[in-house]
Amino acid sequence: MKYTDEHLSAFLDGQLSRDKSEGLELELSANAELAERLASLEEANEAVKDSYSAELDQPIPDHILALLEPQVSHAHAATNDNGTRNVVPLMQKRVKFSLSKWAAPLAASFAMMLGLTVGRGMTLASIDQGALYAQMTGVIAADNPLFEVLETTPSATNVRYGKDKNLEIKPILTFTSNDGSYCREFKAQTTQSAARGVACRDGSVWNVLMLNQTERSYEGGFRTASGNSDAVIDQFIDGLLVGIPLDADGEQTLLNTGWKK
Amino acid sequence: MKMDQNQERKEMLEVLPHIQRFAVSLTRNRADADDLLQNTVERILKKGIPDDADMKRWMFRVCKNIWIDEIRARRVRNNATDSGNITLHDRPEWEREVMGRMKLKQVKDAMENLPDEQRIVLSLITIEGFSYKEAAEILETPIGTIMSRLARARRNLANMFTPDPSTSPYSTNDAFRA
Predict the structure, then answer these.
(1) Average of per-residue pLDDT across A57-79
(2) CB burial readout A241-253, b (16+ within 10 A) else e
(3) In chain A, which residues have their Cβ closer than 8 Å to the Cβ of B123?
(4) Containing domain of residue A202, as a range?
């Protein structure tokens, strides 16, 4: 059988039928010219693939990302149970590191969080829990349970809140950000759902820069609401962090001195 | 079932870097690539996507159609088809070494010389990793046409990479034929 470039090309992509593939493999082992033709196609193919691989990491222009900013639904905006303010958008604080590489996944994560109430068929009970999370976005002042935890609780220590003690907040990590402020990663969970976030101290309040909502899986335990959302928070912290996270002694000093620098 | 608007935006954001790369491979011009990307997003936000459509494939299809019908046509009208001022982003030194004789500029030049129809297929399958079936769906073209355009694109590139075509044992008859 005479093998054309079309056969060789399809063979490269694994899209040749099994019979033809086997026949071609046999011919390749005996026909140096055919093998060289295949190699030249493969080389060209790989060169193109390699040449464009770095393009995937290029930033999306801001004006295009702006087109895809999430639309906040009225239902979700009203879930703050103190009734005095709506959900405060995340990323209020101006961070100094470049978001370019991570802009799309960050925005995706944000969109995912805002879309959760209407997008994942949550029950009324879980919307009640969602109200708790609504309190964990934006500016966290002294009247917020999260404020007390961030302000006074060592990392890896659980603090329980609520009438039935069903809200559990735990600081995970303390670090210095690239604008010199102190930041903490934290987790919060209830019987219904869980969240992982990053807050930074700004004056006398804490600002939640990112909150990634998670939910209980049917198998028990918790899972993130999107496959790469944990990675997104990791990348966010990597971009924000200067040096290494504080050790227990360094953190305790800050807790004792009211986060004085 | 109709997709939630924020879910739709989230899916678009996830595909966006791929569409941007596709736009760069089609236009070879950063400004046109940005225009193409923006028009693609705006078109989908305005017209939505069919209920049973896959977001990624649909975005590629809309992007290709806008390129063919509008931006490429505009460039032709402006007599600027081969502006070719795209700069592929730099790569680590070791990767460039691995590429051997196929230097980035050579690849860029070679891609620029491919007919649109071949470059589109090559971009979808080789760069973006779509199957022949998916590419056929995106381009609304029979699989046989996809296969022949792809083979011709690869052969044309291989011939262009060969320093002295007269020493190549392969025919160049079909070079630049879409």
Answers:
(1) 69
(2) beeebbeeeebee
(3) 52
(4) 59-256
